Amino acid sequence: MKKTVGTHLIIDAWQASPALLNDPEWIRETLIQAVEAGGATLIDLCVHQFSPHGVTATATLAESHIAIHTWPEYGYFAADCFFCGEGDPVKAMKMICKALQAKEIRTREIKRGFDPKIEQREFMPQIIEGT
Amino acid sequence: MKKTVGTHLIIDAWQASPALLNDPEWIRETLIQAVEAGGATLIDLCVHQFSPHGVTATATLAESHIAIHTWPEYGYFAADCFFCGEGDPVKAMKMICKALQAKEIRTREIKRGFDPKIEQREFMPQIIEGT
Asked: How much of chain A, in percent, has pLDDT values that exceed 70?
């Protein structure tokens, strides 16, 4: 079976609010809203504040995950939104960037799953038989 | 200030062991070993088993995160290892691929952080306006 299982957005954002980037409760709320905006289902959420600054948060989703890592001292954050099946990672991405007031954003979209070039090698029947 | 904050490995792996891909305890142990192999520090680990099959696990690290999502029915998993500062994401990646017996692996390396070329483009205000 050949298919793409999901879309993974890799987001680098600059000129965001240093105060918000260093606020774990704001990050927590932002991720919850991003999950909702993307139409995804939250399984678990971990938010961690670093010393002297910076926040990391990972949202485990039924659709895969959202993660964010912030550098308030640079006004920068790195996020990624990996959605499989239902849901829209672009909406989640926009919610995060808006909530953290990023003014420069670079988003790279990566399709995850099966690579036609790889699939031509006919390796999948072996896998199915092995299940 | 311009700098690269870390390396993000995007891993698509095929022909892995369906049984191991569907074993949450094996996935948990694999991630713990991957964190150790990569010289990283684990903050939190979430492992979730889906019905009828598939496992998702996210490891929140002091260095960023490792995430894995498995499709046992395809012998496929998607993983990513994002390491900032110390540590070696390649070692973590190799540990995961070996533990899950993947025979075909595609890894893309993405440098995260500041990109001088992007900073000159000033294209992001459009996205912010579009939210």
From this structure: 85
Residues of chain A with C-beta less than 8 angstroms from the C-beta of B44: 46, 48, 58
Average pLDDT, chain A: 88
pTM above 0.90, yes or no: no
Who among B46, B60, B76 is closest to A48 (CB)?
A: B60
Catalytic residues of B: 64, 69, 84
Cβ neighbourhood burial of B125 (10 Å; 0-12, 13-18, 19+): exposed
The structural domains of chain A, ordered by start, are 12-104 (3.60.90.10)
* Residue in chain B nearest A60 by alpha carbon: B58
pLDDT at B86: 85
Work out the pLDDT band at A115, boundaries 50, 70, 90. Answer: low
In this predicted structure, what is the pLDDT of residue A114?
Answer: 72
Chain B residues inside the 8 Å CB shell of A80: 8, 80, 82
Q: Do A80 and B84 touch (CB under 8 A)?
A: no
The whole-number pLDDT of residue A131 equals 31
